Amino acid sequence: MSETSTKTSGSLASKLLPELKQIAASMGIKMPPKSRKADYVAAISQAGSAAKSTSSQEAAAPSRERRSKAQTSAKSSDKISTQNDEQATPAAEGTENIFGDLPRRSRNRNRSADRDGVERRPRVRREAEELSAQDKQAALEALGEAAERRAAEQQRDGEGDDENPRRNRNRRERNRNNRRENPRNRNNRRDGAPNNARADIVDVEDEATDEEVLIPVAGILDISGTNAYLRTGGYLPGKNDAYVSQQIIKKFGLRRGDAVAGAVRSVTEASVRRGQRQHKYNPLVEVTAINGLSPEESAKRPEFNKLTPLYPQDMLRMETTQNALTTRIVDLVAPIGKGQRGLIVSPPKAGKTVVMQQLAMAIAKNDPNVHLMVVLVDERPEEVTDMQRLVKGEVIASTFDRPATDHTIVAELAVERAKRLVELGQDVVILLDSLTRLSRAYNLAAPASGRILSGGVDAAALYPPKKFFGAARNIENGGSLTIIASALVETGSKMDEVIFEEFKGTGNMELRLSRQLADRRIFPAVDINASGTRREEQLFSNEELQIVWHLRRALGTLDVQEASDYLLNRLRKTESNKEFLVSIVRGMQNNAE
Q: Which partner for 24 in 29, 245, 329, 587 could form a disulfide, CB atoms 3.0-4.6 Å apart?
């Protein structure tokens, strides 16, 4: 016992005064405020029992470690309190080994302390047998109060993370793993329209859940690169459009220009706060109909580019009333068939807009089953309003005060919409006003290719309008796309002349208006001899064809004004074109006699 007391006194003498104060306070020893280090050593040695002596022996190794740390670094008071707690931990463990049925109160345990405790356990057990029950109870109460007080201080001050190096190491590993997982979780929460570089990886199919609110939506699908949107307010982008993911497009086989009906996911404030909204448009999550058909039926439709084009065979009758001379002249001079690709060549102020309106009203009246689309590009707003009120069809317009990109978007989406209808076997007619302004818009909006034609026209800017105009065709076994476009000439612009020359040979029907007749207020100002249709024999019957050819031979000997005056006067005297042709036959017979 004397040897143990000597060792204990030596270990206490090596401690600093703050450490001795902590030990005395943990053992419940009250000392005067001005007590010295020797007083604390003597008081602790006297108050210590055999159990405390054993605890001090068991804590000799940690004391040596703390002594080396105290000599090499000058830490703050929280470091000293941590070392004192390490001293109390082996003592509590040694006491727990003596009384196995009591609860374990220590929170941390170092590997070296465990090893020392195992080595010294027999000595502690032998010396503990000499203790009385009262000494055992006093030692346990002192150690328990010290451990509880220390645990409360650590919990209050938030110093528990620095107690055990192994524990700190494990926490650092967990934090590092959590930081690695957080970006993945954020990517997984996003709903399918990521940055363009990782579109195929993060783009996940949008599916509706029971808790989400679905809103019915319908519109026309517009695909531009990797982005796709459902235009709900027309053919131009709007604030109520819906985003369509690539998974939805691949799943249902959607194409640009499809009329899609479905449902969108309503974006709530909670999802916006959680960062789940990546697009400013609501995502399309459900498709119920495509062009009026079910998704299963729509998957069986053919592709427009694989359909077989033919010359027009069925004539679109334009004649309506006796006084509608414009449409009657068109039927005689330049007949229009289903699948026609026609040009209305007109100088300024020659009445091309009125001719377009007359054709649109005639088609809507004579062929109500034909889907009529009037596309106005770079036009005056008042003309757009006038066309919307007169024409019983779909009017798609982009006025001249809008940017050139809007003109191109409207034209492309309109022709793609027409192609989707032709794939279903429908007859579609597009009236474009005008092809020259559309080419000008592409010349401004398209990126420069470096090849400039005369008049400042970029060579690459003429391909998209040609693609638009070349879509017109008569499809074998049903369906047709007819495009009648106007082209400006005699405007004084070299660019307009170049554009007209590029499209001059692409059409199979041409209706030319005369500035000379318009100046004399002769309307319709149609140049009879300069107008015509290729393969018109497939549109007329044999009797009609013979009479029309005879009329054209007679009018060919006259100039522009005389031919127009003669034809208009004869048409005014007859109620229909059929009656007019009969009168021509009678004149031929009289001349033969």
A: 29
